[in-house]
Structures are given as structure tokens and as C-alpha cells.
From TrEMBL:
Function: The alpha subunit is responsible for the aldol cleavage of indoleglycerol phosphate to indole and glyceraldehyde 3-phosphate.
Subunit structure: Tetramer of two alpha and two beta chains.
Record family assignment: Belongs to the TrpA family.
EC number: 4.2.1.20
CDD domains: Tryptophan_synthase_alpha
Protein name, UniProt field: Tryptophan synthase alpha chain
Annotated Pfam families: Trp_syntA (PF00290)
PROSITE patterns cross-referenced by the UniProt entry: TRP_SYNTHASE_ALPHA
Transcription is among the record's keywords: no
Taxon lineage: Bacteria, Bacillati, Actinomycetota, Actinomycetes, Propionibacteriales
Keywords on record: Amino-acid biosynthesis, Aromatic amino acid biosynthesis, Lyase, Tryptophan biosynthesis
GO molecular function: tryptophan synthase activity
UniProt xrefs under InterPro entries: Aldolase_TIM, RibuloseP-bd_barrel, Trp_synthase_alpha_AS, Trp_synthase_suA
Active-site annotation: 49 (proton acceptor), 60 (proton acceptor)
């Protein structure tokens, strides 16, 4: 298991932000998703977020929803997600699962933590629970030395941001766009102030998810954040080349290289 803090420390030593890439497990297949994420690592991602496909993804935009639904239709379950974690963590980069809370609760919180750690996972990103309602996960994560990544938004109060910065380990996920996920043509002017508020509240890296889809946008966000999170743009690479794995992997490689150059340009 590689802690997420190592990715941020390495990036910081190089005078840049970390690039964190997201794809859902099981799309276009379990093994296909492993190959896709490994390609992203080879091309420059410092850490990988693996989405656990869920039937009621209220915070996901249409791109991620489409891929996650295809994975569910293909029979992907939580045990398959753990297999993907194992396959990606073998690369040596920090590998986290991003999931709504209900699948974790149904699987069993302690069992989930045990299996995630056993697969080499670095931790869990939980977009729909806050630290004051996540005591079961915090206890299990601490027992297994797993990162606990909670979200903040521009609407978060200073008190909630302080609590989140205090309880998070690995990084704080700054969701700097109000609404569902998805690539956007321009970055949000809410991101910089939100990062500043988190930094003022605690000593923990802050990574921004803001709909980044190219190197120029990555450079813009990397100028003020510790990490740049990219999801929908990566998923779109696979959706646009459905049925042609080689083309999809090449699109992923090209996009990752552009984004990796962007986070370095900012430094």
C-alpha cells in the first residue's frame, strides 16, 4: 500500500501539483479498466481514484453515469472493484476508491476496510458523508491505516471546513463547482478561495475537482492547488472509443500526457 501523502510529497519536491485521475471500475470490463488505469499511470498520473459503480449516482454527471451504468449492466460488484484496486496498486501509485456510502454500509464497513487494505488500496473518498457522520468509517480507516478523504464545497462553513481538514488524511477534496461532475470549458473562480480556506484551517493537501479537461486548465488549477483531479474527461476517452480498446487507451495516454505537462507547467 502506498499512502496518498507520498504522491503529494513527490509532486511538492518537484515544484508542482499532483495529477489524480479517475475512472470507474469495470468499464469497459474489469480487466479493461485495469489496463486503462495502468495506462494513465504510465503516462503521468500520480494517483488513481477508482469509482465504485452505483445505481443512484446523484452527484455524477452524464458521462460518468453512462460508464458506471455499463459496468453495472456487465455485472460488476464490489469484489470486482477490489480486484481493480489490486491491479492498479501493483503499479506503486496511491490507489483510492471513490464511492457513495451506501455500498460500503451494505458490504460491511470493517469488511470493506479490511479488503481495501488487503488489495493495496490507499484509502477511500466519500462524497456523501461528512466527518461528523462518518465515525464508523473513521474508526475502520484508522485501524487499517487508510486515508480518509472528505469533500468541501464553496458553500461549506468555516467550521465545517476546519472539521474536514482536521479529520481528513491524504488530502481534502475541494469540489469547487456547485452541481454534478463533468468536464467544463472554463475553470471556476470559486476554486482558489476555497483552497485558501482549507489551507487556513489545517495542514493537509488540497486537491481540486473542477471539470478539468486539458493541460491549460490543469496548469491554471495547479497554480493554486496541491492536486488536480480529472474524471469525466478520462471517462469520455473510453466512451468515445467504445469497442476499440486500443484507440481508447491511446486517447487516455494522450490526454494524461497533456494534463501531466499542464501541472508541471504551473510550477
Amino acid at each position: 500500500m502506498t499512502s496518498t501523502s507520498t504522491a503529494f510529497a513527490r509532486a511538492r519536491s518537484e515544484g508542482r501539483a499532483a495529477l489524480i485521475g479517475y475512472l470507474p471500475a469495470g468499464y469497459p470490463s474489469v480487466e479493461g479498466s485495469i489496463r486503462a488505469m495502468r495506462t494513465m499511470v504510465e503516462a503521468g498520473c500520480d494517483a488513481i481514484e477508482i469509482g465504485l459503480p452505483y445505481s443512484d449516482p446523484v452527484m455524477d454527471g452524464p458521462t460518468i453515469q453512462a460508464a458506471a451504468q455499463a459496468a453495472l449492466d456487465g455485472g460488476v460488484r464490489t469484489a470486482d472493484v477490489m480486484r481493480v484496486v489490486e491491479g492498479v496498486a501493483e503499479t506503486g501509485v496511491p490507489t483510492l476508491v471513490m464511492t457513495y456510502w451506501n455500498p460500503v454500509e451494505r458490504y460491511g464497513v470493517e469488511r470493506f476496510a479490511t479488503d481495501l487494505a488487503g488489495a493495496g488500496g490507499a484509502g477511500l473518498i466519500t462524497p456523501d458523508i461528512t466527518p461528523d457522520h462518518g465515525s464508523a468509517w473513521i474508526a475502520a480507516a484508522d485501524e487499517h491505516d487508510l486515508d480518509k478523504v472528505f469533500l468541501v464545497a464553496p458553500s461549506s462553513t468555516d467550521a465545517r471546513i476546519a472539521m474536514t481538514a482536521r479529520e481528513s488524511r491524504g488530502f481534502v477534496y475541494a469540489a469547487a463547482v456547485m452541481g454534478v461532475t463533468g468536464a467544463r470549458e472554463a475553470t471556476s473562480d470559486l476554486a482558489g478561495p476555497l483552497v485558501g480556506r482549507v489551507r487556513a484551517a489545517g495542514d493537509v493537501p488540497v486537491a481540486v475537482g473542477i471539470g478539468v479537461s486539458n493541460g491549460d486548465q490543469a496548469a491554471e488549477v495547479a497554480a493554486f492547488a496541491d492536486g488536480v483531479i480529472v474524471g469525466s474527461a478520462f471517462v469520455r476517452c473510453l466512451l468515445d472509443h467504445e469497442g476499440d480498446e486500443a484507440a481508447g487507451l491511446e486517447a487516455l495516454r494522450s490526454l494524461t500526457a497533456d494534463l501531466a505537462e499542464g501541472v508541471r507547467r504551473a510550477g
